[in-house]
């Protein structure tokens, strides 16, 4: 038998070199066309697809390769391989050009014998609770609301915006992260932007593509608002302001800013925290809680902000309107923070221009503030037009105490008050502000009151279609004497009758002395009455202002509808410093409030917690301390 040629001997060694793509030289045919030239041709392998071995042959080659002793592969396989032979050939070709000592670190490992699908890394799943919010960037004067510029050399131009969130994200590195709403998204060429979410968690809310998150050391004060000629810019915090009100900036914002749009609890949580809302100062809580309720999440009062001055308005009308809109409402809606010196401007104007004195320093009630602002200065058209010919901005409940009631609802007291006063409203109001039956800061007629989430005003609207309490048809008569026990739930709805039911119901000997009167029904409705259900008119609760020991706070609904989450606002929740310090406002989520305000939830908590001291903190405030309930009609407010 002839001895094997050098070429066949080399081939019998079956050395396998696996490159990083899982290919091996065993899968190539070697051809010596000349002494100095070696070519490689791929073998035809049936189970081969896209250059990757999927059968067990690669596994055998890898095992054999792992058993080999150290050999100089370049000496065996040569150093003149074509590029198509793969990365392994490149290593062999370069070996002759590299010092041997430098090649000892090059280790060729066999690839996995099977085809592995690499799944994308599962993103970390965090919640808002995993983030630690901060009020300011430590060691700087930058805080939430500050105007800043962001330097990102080599990536994009300098960016300008306002700080919307500061905190420490989850993870081993406790570096401060800053969330910024950028003023011009056209500069965001190579920067990842969002709508206020970070790792899928909403930290604040803005338009999509306007939010960026950067390390704290990338942020500096916006130089465009720097002091010029020793004149302090209106949008910069002076050292005097820093001592009085803290470092949080509060620039005036011009134009028309809509109310905050909150769709769920996560979005609400992103705007909650300290230094949120309106900062209190010098007994301003009565005004802070009322303004926060009026403008943060609803537009029912927005006509005050935009009505042009008329000949009947006072000379300072536009000045008051601009301060209210540009320095309080717009910053509140845009940055969720208003510094107390901005509010003091409004207080000073109200104190000078209205008959209510002491608005800058003394304790006042919300109705005193509303009377000053709405009636005397802004000349707002009264919300309530009574059948008696009187107009009003709010309605005080006057009722006789029913000892049987342990937890009356606002709906019950509301109907009882209108019945005893024998008045009605001429039209459905866009806003209905109801004062609870309590007088002064101490006397409360009922220790607990349930704020009704929906207020049925059908039976107190003059000349509005009503439903017969017995058959449900169009009512044509009203009998005030049929107003029954509130405990039994028979309120104003049970005073309306159609002619047939009126006669039948009053044939009873106990009701023969009742006096009924005919009520007006629109002719157009009479024609269609047989073919449609008489509609009922409802208004939605959107805020409750509460008082305890002369301090006002507010529960405010962050949207419209039964599922909108509620928040709690306190303009003086915390304080930094003593006599020369400043108050820290805070917004808190109250996810349980919707359940507490339901009839079933209220009854349960009232029965299980008969002692006010064992009530949950927020439940105690909403049931025991309610001072004023604010309702709105989403249908009517569109026309105002």
Automatic annotation (TrEMBL):
InterPro entries registered for this protein in UniProt: CAP-Gly_dom_sf, CAP-Gly_domain, Papain-like_cys_pep_sf, Peptidase_C19_UCH, USP
A cellular component term, taken from the record's GO annotations: perinuclear region of cytoplasm
Predominant cellular place of this UniProt entry's protein: cytoplasm
Main EC class the enzyme belongs to: hydrolase
SUPFAM superfamilies membership: Cap-Gly domain, Cysteine proteinases
Name of the protein: ubiquitinyl hydrolase 1
UniProt keyword annotations, A-Z: Cytoplasm, Hydrolase, Metal-binding, Phosphoprotein, Protease, Thiol protease, Ubl conjugation pathway, Zinc
Catalysed reaction, written as an equation: Thiol-dependent hydrolysis of ester, thioester, amide, peptide and isopeptide bonds formed by the C-terminal Gly of ubiquitin (a 76-residue protein attached to proteins as an intracellular targeting signal)
PROSITE patterns in UniProt: USP_3
Location of the USP domain: 276-634
GO biological process entries: acylglycerol homeostasis; determination of adult lifespan; negative regulation of peptidoglycan recognition protein signaling pathway; positive regulation of JNK cascade; positive regulation of programmed cell death; positive regulation of tumor necrosis factor-mediated signaling pathway; protein deubiquitination; proteolysis
Pfam families given in the database record: CAP_GLY, UCH
MF term (GO), any: Met1-linked polyubiquitin deubiquitinase activity
EC number: 3.4.19.12
Family note: Belongs to the peptidase C19 family.
Compartments it resides in: Cytoplasm, Cytoskeleton, Microtubule organizing center, Centrosome; Cytoplasm, Perinuclear region
